[in-house]
Design a protein that fits this description.
Elements: H1 2-8, H2 15-22, E1 29-32, E2 35-38, H3 40-45, H4 66-79, H5 94-115, H6 123-149
Antiparallel strand pairs: 1-2
Helix pairs in contact: 5-6
Length: about 150
């Protein structure tokens, strides 16, 4: 398994990376101005869930659009120093594992309803109260206990 994961995580610029991301040359992609560009078949055949097993480090690269890459880079230079890391990474909450997906879905549904104008912004407060009562506060307690132990 480790050998497979190592292959899947081959870095940008390698033949393995090119094959995994773009497929077979002249079938799934063609080089246009030196940049791999997916064909219609490639758009279908290269959309696989392999990145959920292992993946190369993410890069900023938009074939044929160097301005987009420069803009992404400039944006990250500004926002990354402001980022706050997630202190719960590496910690476990049983409630988050069993109920977190459902709670996240409900919050996303409310967020989308607000953004689409189907619910008023004030409905967010009720959603947060419900989230807290149905597992959110328990998730917070479990993570706090885990953080305290470490």
């Amino acid at each position: 398994m480790l050998t497979i994961c190592n292959w899947l995580a081959a870095p940008f610029g390698t033949q393995e990376y090119l094959f995994r991301k773009y497929g077979t040359k002249n079938v799934d992609y063609q080089l246009q101005h030196g940049e791999p560009t997916l064909t219609q078949k490639g758009n279908v055949e290269t959309v696989l869930g392999l990145q959920y097993v292992a993946d190369a480090p993410q890069i900023m690269y938009c074939p044929g659009m160097p301005r987009v890459t420069r803009t992404e880079y400039a944006f990250q230079q500004k926002v990354v120093p402001l980022a706050v890391g997630d202190p719960t990474i590496g910690h476990f909450s049983d409630t988050a594992a069993t109920k977190g997906g459902q709670l996240d879905t409900k919050m996303t549904d409310v967020q989308n309803a607000i953004l689409q104008g189907r619910q008023p912004l004030s409905s967010w407060d009720d959603a947060v109260v419900t989230w807290r009562k149905t597992g959110g506060d328990q998730i917070r307690r479990e993570f706090a206990e885990s953080l305290h132990r470490s």
